[in-house]
Amino acid sequence: MKRVLLLTEFFRPEPGGLEGLFTGIARNWDSDAIEVVVAADRKHYFCTDADIKKFDEKERYVLHRSDGVRSGFLRKPGTIDHLFRERLENFAPAHILLSDVSRTSRALANRAYLAGVPYSVFLTGGDLKRKLGFTRILERRLILGARNIFAISRFLARDARGFGIPEDRITVLPPGFEPRWTGRKRNPLPEKLQERVRHKVLLLGLGPFLPRKGFDAALKALQTLGDLKQRLHLVLTGSGPEFAYLKELIRIHDLHDMVSMTGFLNDAALASLYHRADVLIQPGCEVDDDVESLGAVFMEAAHFGTPVIGGRLGGVEEIVRHGVSGFIAEPGNIVELADRIRQLVESDRLRTRFGKNARDIARRDFDMSRTAAAIEMRL
Fold first, then answer.
1. Which domain holds residue 338?
2. 96 and 127 housed in the same domain
3. Residues 346 and 317 grouped into a single domain
4. Last residue within a domain, chosen from 173, 207, 230
5. What is the pTM of this model?
6. Other C-beta atoms within 10 Å of 77: how many?
């Protein structure tokens, strides 16, 4: 494989789909042909320094972490500028992989250009409307100077063409999933939560709680399913900007007996919830400057053999097979959403069939080694 330097702000042990993507790419590259530079401000991390150290020590490739701060012309040790320049000189990569369109990637792409090293850029959901508008000259210059633009879904590739990015420069990557979980050990749920979901169909919704997730629609749908009150329970796990808003909706609509909010859970606790969950739900909501570029959460669900109900937005339909591994519903259509919930709650056979299909699809179609191979072929 070609010698590459991967620069990213998204890397394990943090949760998240992009963190899984770039960790998976590193793990599926020849370990002596890749180095990873993680540029992130640690004050924004969910994980601790001990979590990071434990993770880093187990990885086979060389991994560097900076403080995420750019130093301009000072090039202070520990800053991303200094570390990037030092790796260009000492590792001598043949290609640079930039994980997204950002101020940092703009600066380092320019440094790579001056050093005569080509670079490629990954296009994610947050990079389109917010960063690639025709007035964003520097961002567009970064994209147009890249040898390849790697789109993580067909949906993003279509949108990128709409922003004037040359089609022959865009490569749509096959979806790949890198599990956060190893082994098959199943820990019990916390006793209080276990009591609330006992003998009920458990619907699981995962944060971060953002408007595009559409969990307010899930709560509105539950309002119409009062006759199933003793048969289903929605567990919302995670945090995010809409946490307090959703909690207030639960109070206003008197849904306390049908909904639990757990806050942020570590990976072991989240795995326990996935093992117990009967359905993953994420209704989705159309938001102008935020899109569900792929939906790694749906690949996680497939990994656990959990059927899903997802909104018809972004790249979700590239992961969820309607009527095969779950249901796709129109965002904002509460009647349709409630009907899909009812179907899955009332039919054990349907949930079992969808779950088996989801697991088969995950094993067959979400192979991270194919994602890495597709990247390598274009370098």
1. 191-365
2. yes
3. yes
4. 173
5. 0.89
6. 9
pLDDT at residue 185, rounded to an integer? 66
Q: Examine the pLDDT at 135 and tell me if it is beyond 60.
A: no
> Do 113 and 230 lie in a common domain?
no
Phi-psi domain of 23 (left: phi exceeds 0; alpha: psi -120 through 50; beta: other)? alpha
| Residue 236 within a domain | yes
Residue 185 lies in a domain: no
Q: Are residues 157 and 231 in the same domain?
A: no
Tokens of 102: 């950002």
Grouping H, G, I as helix, E, B as strand and the rest as coil, residue 171 is strand
For residue 131, the 8-state DSSP code is T
- The percentage of residues in the chain with a pLDDT greater than 70, rounded to a whole number, is 91
Q: Which of these three, 146, 173, 200, is where a domain ends?
A: 173
Radius of gyration for the chain, computed over Cα atoms and rounded to the nearest angstrom: 21
pLDDT of 100 reads 87
State yes or no: pLDDT of 70 exceeds 50. Answer: no
Could you please report the per-residue DSSP string of 301-364?
HHHTT--EEEES-TTGGGT--BTTTEEEE-TT-HHHHHHHHHHHHH-HHHHHHHHHHHHHHHHH
Give a yes or no: residue 231 inside a domain: yes
Q: Which two tokens stand for residue 113?
A: 């250009």
Chain-wide mean pLDDT for the chain? 88
Which CATH number is 96's domain given?
A: 3.40.50.2000
pLDDT, position 319: 92
Higher pLDDT, 268 or 361: 361
Q: Does 34 share its domain with 125?
A: yes
Locus of tokens 């056979």: 349
β-strand pairing of 308-311 with 62-66: unpaired
pLDDT band at 41 (very low <50, low <70, confident <90, very high): low
State whether residue 278 is helix, strand or coil: coil
- DSSP-assigned letters across all residues of 22-81: HHHHHHTS-GGGEEEEEE--GGG-SS-HHHHHHHHHH-SSEEEEE-S---TTS--TTSHH
